[in-house]
């Protein structure tokens, strides 16, 4: 399934950068771009997109007024440098609200959210999207796909994060908080300030230490009981 999308932003560099990132997401198809709301209205009419990435502060007609002017607007993801419009945006039922500069993983998360909404509306009984099974990180100037089921450990290292999978070890410039937001809570847990683990990949838990893929990981005292409960509730562990 592909979401036909347009980008509306009065800044050429912002349009170009967003378009380049969106082309990395396989279920997003860019069918047009517009530098102002008036051209966007024409583009919405002619291309009938599923999704619009929309800036707010533009000349003559701003992004919020554009949404109001369309009788049956497509899904909208706001892309703005200002957080002050967030409440007004959500009052207009926008799908998501992204603050510039836009992190790629946050953009991907918004696109997945839009895809889920689209599927729920058009095919409520359909299969769950495979896009929920992975995310992307930027490594050495390129984007690498990380599949949840193959990831067993996330490790902090100063301003970088290492992602350990069954086949490789990836290093990305990010924070543990940003990575944790991308991971499903029912599959991953932060057991220490420097470590996030895949719950179903744990082999042992002994005192304040666990073993995962032959790597010993410290467990903070305040989360040890939570980890133990998670393990005991998994039929295939321990």
Question: Which characteristics define this entry?
Answer:
238 residues, alpha/beta, Rossmann fold, OB fold (Dihydrolipoamide Acetyltransferase, E2P), 2 domains, 5-stranded antiparallel β-sheet, 7 helices, 15 strands, 33% strand
Indicate the structural class.
alpha/beta
* Share in β-strands: 25-35%
**Into which percent range does the helicity of residues fall?**
25-40%
Query: Uncertain runs with pLDDT below 50, 5 residues or more?
Result: 125-131
The CATH class of the largest domain is Alpha Beta
The main sheet comes to:
5 strands, parallel
The counted number of beta strands is 15
Helix tally?
7
Whole-angstrom Rg: 21 Å
SSE series: EHEHEHEHEHEEEEEHEEEEEH
How many domains? The number is: 2
CATH superfamily of the largest domain: Response regulator
Mean pLDDT equals: 86
- Order the strands across the largest sheet as they lie in space: 2-1-3-4-5
**Which assembly state applies to the chains in this document?**
single chain
Whole-Å distance between the termini?
Answer: 39 Å
* Shape estimate: elongated
> Any guess at the CATH architecture of the largest domain?
3-Layer(aba) Sandwich
CATH domain topology of the largest domain: Rossmann fold
């Amino acid at each position: 399934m592909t979401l036909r999308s347009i980008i509306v932003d009065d800044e050429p560099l912002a349009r170009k950068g967003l378009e380049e990132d969106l082309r990395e997401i396989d279920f997003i198809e860019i069918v047009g771009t517009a530098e102002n709301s008036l051209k966007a209205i024409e583009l919405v009419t002619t291309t009938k997109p599923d999704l619009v990435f929309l800036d707010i502060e533009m000349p003559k007609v701003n992004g919020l007024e554009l949404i109001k002017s369309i009788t049956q607007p497509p899904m909208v993801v706001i892309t703005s440098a200002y957080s002050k419009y967030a409440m007004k945006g959500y009052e207009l039922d926008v799908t998501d609200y992204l603050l510039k500069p836009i992190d790629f993983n946050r953009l991907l998360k918004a696109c997945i959210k839009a895809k889920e909404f689209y599927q729920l509306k058009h095919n409520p009984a359909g299969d769950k999207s495979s896009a929920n099974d992975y995310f992307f990180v930027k490594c050495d100037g390129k984007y690498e796909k990380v599949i949840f089921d193959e990831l067993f450990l996330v490790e902090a290292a100063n301003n970088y994060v290492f992602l350990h999978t069954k086949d490789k070890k990836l290093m990305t410039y990010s924070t543990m908080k940003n990575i944790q937001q991308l991971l499903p809570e029912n599959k991953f847990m932060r057991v220490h300030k420097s470590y996030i683990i895949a719950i179903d990949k744990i082999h042992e838990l002994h005192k304040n230490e666990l073993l995962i893929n032959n790597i010993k990981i410290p467990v903070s005292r305040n989360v040890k009981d939570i980890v133990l409960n998670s393990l005991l509730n998994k039929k295939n562990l321990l």
